[in-house]
Design goal:
With 471 residues, the chain is an alpha/beta fold. It folds into two domains: 242 residues, 3-Layer(aba) Sandwich (Rossmann fold), CATH 3.40.50; 208 residues, 3-Layer(aba) Sandwich (Rossmann fold), CATH 3.40.50.2000. It contains 17 helices and 18 strands. The protein has a ten-stranded mixed β-sheet, sandwiched between helices. The chain has a six-stranded parallel β-sheet with strand order 15-14-13-16-17-18, sandwiched between helices. α4 links the parallel β7 and β8. The structure holds adenosine-5'-diphosphate and 6-O-phosphono-beta-D-fructofuranose (F6P). The site of adenosine-5'-diphosphate (ADP) has 15 residues, from α1, β13, β14 and α13.
Length: 471
């Protein structure tokens, strides 16, 4: 590894790929962080020499930089107040709802906004400290929208890119944010801005036109100081090769058979895999499944649902409310329809190793991906990669994945009757149709994998219209 001030590539994200977890006995353990960003960037960083600047998931002092899995990790400290104000507050109770169609009411507090600015500066300073002269710095996601501008002020020699893992909202929603113009100016500190869908990039450019009076020609936004910044779609993906190999391995295939056996060898296994987040449409999915059982269209234990609901943002009220609703509904469905010893819904509220996730994808006949809004949804791509030809994917129209995965059974999760019909259509479709759909989706993901995504992003960044000022 080169010394810590000389990295040519620096990743800046709210989270490091591992969380530091201090147990009650004071022992420190490193655990893989949740979410699609980490899944994607972990595989990008393997085989590249670079630093990753991020928070280690615990309040308090940060440890010194360390190497984990061949990655040079630079922890950024957050105090307990900053976790509450920058992460839980502004990032996840103000921005997150606005960027996801206001599914829950956003909350705005001036104290949260100040913390967001302070923490964005800290991340930018940490990146500036470990970037070599003329280095490429790749900033990630909605938690760090002010960082590109701060970084440019600190280090005009850098090439700065930013990628948004979540949707970018229509201007009518974005406008609700207090001090909204500063967010746009913060982002325009970058040379290139990447989004999941063309619509997200268009929304950003419209916001610049409407709220900053910026000139926008095609994908190029001209900033107030005359720089040209490109904002375009670069949809994220997965390590398709690696995951397919894992899924085809004998231990994973064996584990998939075992999972079905443990469920009582059902005829139909439906699967949902999500962070326990109100954007994911878990309640709508459970409602549809419950009604299919109550009408007798499906019957337990022949037809079952596995719902993996990964713990997420557990101190936030909206997430606690959702957890209560989901767990109550699972209990009701099992109470009403499951025979002794075999639940109709197997509910798993914890994290699993990659092998177990792959086995679940192999075991499931139909994958239910029903978010109300989702930037991409990597789970959809993981399922079509892992499962054989006889699978079926039910996919919400409100995900980035729906743009690419044309072979999915598309649904509007708000329309419960239509969702039920789509689930049954997917479950009962003839094998040749499933095969055609699954193969086309698998080909799409294989030819647009995470390595291609990262290379496309870095090429776009290198070719961005304005050359950085060299000092
Ligand atoms: P998000 O980024 O909103 O969480 P994505 O679907 O894009 O949603 O990415 C989620 C990632 O986390 C996927 O790689 C998925 O396999 C992984 N994942 C989800 N739940 C679990 C779990 N319980 N254990 C391990 N990995 C999980
Ligand atoms: O992809 C969206 C995202 O918010 C990522 O930024 C994040 O890593 C992931 O989901 C999980 O959320 P959190 O980091 O808040 O646990």
């Amino acid at each position: 590894m080169p010394d810590r001030t000389s990295f040519d590539l620096v990743i800046v994200a709210n989270r490091l790929p591992v969380d530091r977890v201090t147990g009650p006995d004071g022992r420190v353990e490193l655990r893989r962080s949740p979410g699609g960003l980490v899944t994607a960037m972990e595989s990008v960083m393997r085989g590249r020499e670079g630093a990753w600047v991020g928070w280690a998931g615990e309040a308090g002092e940060a440890s010194d930089p360390f190497v984990e899995d061949d990655m040079y990790l630079v922890p950024v400290p957050l105090s307990a107040d900053e976790v509450a104000d920058y992460y839980e507050g502004y990032s996840n109770a103000s921005l997150w709802p606005i960027y996801h169609d206001v599914i829950v009411q956003p909350v705005f507090k001036r104290r949260w906004r100040s913390a967001y600015e302070k923490v964005n500066r800290r991340f930018a300073e940490a990146a500036a400290d470990c970037a070599a002269r003329g280095a490429t710095v790749w900033v990630h996601d909605y938690q760090l929208q002010l960082a590109p501008h701060i970084l440019r002020e600190l280090r005009p020699d850098l090439r700065i890119g930013w990628f948004n893992h979540i949707p970018f909202p229509p201007v009518e929603l974005f406008m609700q944010l207090p001090r909204r113009e500063e967010l746009l100016r913060g982002l325009l500190g970058a040379d290139f801005l990447g989004f999941q869908r063309r619509t997200d990039a268009e929304n950003f450019r419209s916001a610049c036109r409407r709220l900053l009076g910026a000139t926008v020609k095609g994908e190029i936004v001209t900033t107030e100081d005359g720089r040209a910044v490109r904002a375009a779609a670069v949809p994220i993906s997965i390590d398709a090769d690696g995951l397919q190999q894992l899924a085809r391995s004998e231990p994973v295939q064996e584990r998939a058979r075992e999972i079905r056996h443990e469920l009582g060898d059902p005829d139909l296994v439906l699967l949902g895999v999500d962070r326990l987040d109100y954007t994911k449409g878990i309640r709508h999915r459970l409602k549809a499944f419950g009604e299919l059982l109550s009408e007798g269209t499906l019957t337990a234990p022949g037809d079952v649902l596995i719902q993996v609901a990964t713990p997420s943002r557990e101190r936030l009220e909206a997430y606690q409310t959702l957890r209560g609703q989901v767990e109550r509904t699972v209990g009701q469905i099992n109470g009403d329809y499951a025979p002794i010893g075999t639940p109709a819904v197997s509910y798993l509220h914890r994290s699993f190793p990659r092998e177990e996730m792959a086995a679940l994808f192999v075991a499931a006949d139909v994958m239910l991906v029903t978010p109300l809004r989702d930037g991409m949804n990597l789970v959809a791509k993981e399922y079509v990669t892992c499962h054989g030809d006889d699978g079926a994917l039910v996919l919400s129209e409100f995900t980035g994945a729906a743009v690419e995965l044309q072979g999915a059974y598309r649904c509007n999760p708000h329309d419960i009757d239509a969702l039920k019909t789509t689930i049954m259509e997917a479950a009962r479709s003839p094998l040749d149709e499933r095969r055609r759909r699954m193969r086309s989706m698998r080909r799409q993901v294989a030819s647009h994998d995470v390595a291609r995504w990262a290379q496309d992003f870095l090429d776009d960044l290198a070719a961005a219209p304005d050359k950085p000022e060299r000092r």
